[in-house]
Amino acid sequence: MLRKLTILTIALFATLQSVSAFNIVVPAQDRRCFFENLDKDDWLHGSFQVGEGGHLDIDFWMTDPSGTLVEDATKSASGTYHYQAKTSGKYEYCFSNAFSTVTEKSVAFNFGVVKPFKEDPTHKVDPLENEIRELAAGVQEIRNEQEYTLARERTHRNTAESTNSRVVWWSLFQSGILFLVCVFQITYLKRFFEVKRVV
User: Fold this and answer.
1) Contact 13, 104 (CB under 8 A)
2) In this structure, what DSSP letter does residue 101 have?
3) Which keywords label this protein (predicted)?
4) CA-to-CA distance for 111 and 36, rounded, in angstroms?
5) What's residue 101's pLDDT?
6) pLDDT the model gives residue 113
7) Is 14 exposed, middle or buried (0-12, 13-18, 19+ CB in 10 A)?
8) pLDDT reported for residue 13
9) Which pLDDT score, from 0 to 100, does residue 15 have?
10) Domain containing 143: what range?
11) Residues 143, 59: contact at Cβ < 8 Å?
């Protein structure tokens, strides 16, 4: 039992190298960049969601260590990416709000590095170990989806609250207009029925 628990713990740490979940604000006419050090054949899994600001869109791109563009999305509200490193080095991914002149954007994102499993030819492969590795990868995928769902829920909640606020203010505005029209009609009708005497 202790051996199985040890294998499970090692598999979880070996499979899930690093996960970054953040919520950032990108000012207008600006960008925010982040880096991940990847070895050849490492997988970079990530997703982002714009939560607030403007039309809920942002520019996203990712470059490899040589500066070559490997992912690109223009004015996107959300995105999910899976990229396998072709070379070792520092990979950069950026969120740009350069096209916006006044509105800042709130972006929720998470990126995780998954190291490939390298079998040791001298070590006998345990089927339980393989199952644990697959389970760990599935758990990571579920976690990424949960982060994405939470970001979407936040976006929809902000939209609903904004719509509710606009409906309330529009109703108050209409009530004010209705009150002014009633006052105008009463005073106009009062003048119409006034008896004018010539002295």
Assistant:
1) no
2) S
3) Membrane, Signal, Transmembrane, Transmembrane helix
4) 9
5) 79
6) 82
7) middle
8) 46
9) 45
10) 2-155
11) no
- pTM, whole model, 2 decimals? 0.57
- Provide the CB-side half-sphere exposure for 60 (13 A, CA): 22
- Token representation of residue 8: 């499970």
Task: Supply the pLDDT for residue 178.
Answer: 94
Nearest Cα to 77, choosing from 99, 103, 108?
Answer: 108
Number of structural domains (the chain) is 1
Which amino acid is located at 168 in the chain?
V
pLDDT at 8: 47
Query: Mean pLDDT per 10-residue run, the chain (199 residues)?
Result: 52 46 81 87 83 82 88 84 86 87 83 73 72 80 77 79 91 94 90 70
- Which is nearest to 85 in space by CA: 37, 43, 34, 146? 43
Does the residue 169 lie in any domain? Answer: no
Q: Which residues contact 143 (CB under 8 A, 6 or more apart)?
A: 19
The CATH code of the domain that includes 134 is 2.60.120.380
> What is the helix (H) or strand (E) element at residue 4, kind and residue range?
helix 2-15
SS (H, E, C) 24-39: EEECCCCEEEEEEEEC
Task: Please check whether residue 167 lies inside any domain of the structure.
Answer: no
DSSP 140-194: HHHHHHHHHHHHHHHHHHHHHHHHHHHHHHHHHHHHHHHHHHHHHHHHHHHHHTP
Report yes or no on 188 lying in a domain. Answer: no
